[in-house]
Amino acid sequence: MTIKPLIDRVVLKLDNAEQTTASGIVLSSQAQEKPQYANVVAVGPGGIVDGNEVKMYVKVGDKVIASKYAGTEVKIDGEEYTIVRQSDILAIVE
Fold first, then answer.
1. DSSP string covering 32-43
2. Mean pLDDT per 10-residue section of the chain, whose length is 94 residues
3. pTM to 2 decimals?
């Protein structure tokens, strides 16, 4: 199944959460923080949102930092993705 985001939406594949601390302590799944780093999987075409034109600045393959609790989490074919607005992406990591 393919995800095709609309207008200013971006589909992200979040990096795995750290399972151990720097000192070697193993964290339970509940104690792990939601990762902010993600890879862009799909990008909407842009367009008009609330009367303003939205230009898309991210592209497929970019590594980005997204707001920690932004977006909608979906599971497709056993893979977890997060769909966010482009404005919820804070930076592109180079």
1. SPPP-EEEEEEE
2. 92 74 60 74 93 94 92 92 95 94
3. 0.79
